[in-house]
Specification:
The chain is an alpha+beta fold. The chain is built from seven helices and eleven strands. A hairpin with a 4-residue loop joins β7 and β8. Bound molecules: zinc ion. Zinc ion binds next to loops.
Length: about 270
């Protein structure tokens, strides 16, 4: 699943590749998907988009937001670029055929958002609308006092995973990027927030900032693919690629287990529960 770093990378690739190009035809919901969300009737997307020019793209949480004149496309799913005459994917939830013969397609993974709405309005997607309202961890506005403002009376009882990756506290930070953030902070995903010392909380805050920034600067994680279908250049420390291998810091073998509806990866040497 793409998360905040990959959305930022893909948005910049859209800007460098198709911004300024006119949409010839839009096809939404060609392959119906149980967990694909649209704004209103996907059959109306062509009327909303055809003939209009692709504007600026930006990453908003885990969503790629693309301005299209009076409309906004907010795509929470991987997006692929297709050159002229390159075959389009057999299945997709959104396809934009462009006037120069190139195309963009977007395909849901486990789920996907393919919102198209008038500029200035809300998308109706909790994830995207929250991300529009909150400072991105990639920006200076996400500072230690903002991080502290995310704490409330219930926070001490939450695990570190629940605190960072649920309830849209930090939109776009999901169960993927989470693993390396917690490893960098030397905090176990099950660790209760109330048990973290001031120094550990500071390490957690700094890890949120530095790890997400590194993932973005290096083109996204190596477990995800970019606009051109290439894996990102950020080598994940903890992911499906590294489970069972030695920890680069201490040499312990990296583990995977199920926790809170998703796998967690940990180093038994660096992260104590
Ligand atoms: Zn370790």
């Amino acid at each position: 699943m793409i998360e905040l770093p990959e959305a930022a990378v893909i948005a910049e690739q859209v800007n460098a590749t198709v911004t300024g190009t006119r949409i010839a035809r839009a096809v939404a919901n060609a392959s119906p998907h149980r967990f694909a969300w649209y704004t209103g009737d996907p059959a109306a997307y062509n009327d909303h988009l055809a003939g209009k020019t692709i504007g600026r793209a930006s990453g908003v949480g885990a969503t790629v937001e693309i301005e299209v004149e009076d409309r906004v496309l907010a795509i929470g799913a991987p997006i692929r670029y297709h050159a002229q005459r390159e075959p389009r994917p057999a299945k997709h939830q959104l396809l934009l055929e462009l006037a120069d013969g190139t195309a963009l397609s977007a395909t849901a993974q486990m789920w996907g958002g393919f919102f198209c709405f008038p500029r200035g309005e809300k998308a109706g997607s909790i994830e995207y609308d929250c991300a529009k309202d909150r400072p991105s961890p990639l920006l200076d506005a996400f500072d230690r006092s903002y991080f502290d403002s995310l704490f409330d009376a219930g926070t001490p009882k939450l695990s570190a995973k629940a605190f960072l990756a649920t309830e849209q506290r930090i939109p776009g930070l999901g169960n993927g990027a989470l693993q390396d953030i917690l490893w960098t902070a030397r905090a176990h995903p099950k660790r209760k927030m109330g048990t973290l010392s001031d120094a550990e909380l500071d390490a957690l805050f700094r890890a949120v900032k530095t790890v997400l920034a590194a993932m973005m600067e290096q083109g996204g994680r190596d477990t995800e693919r970019d606009l051109f279908g290439d894996p990102g250049g950020y080598a994940t420390v903890l992911s499906k690629h590294t489970v069972g291998k030695p920890c680069p810091a201490c040499g312990s073998l990296l583990r995977k287990e199920a926790y809170m509806g998703g796998g967690i990866y940990t180093c038994p040497g660096c992260q104590k529960a």
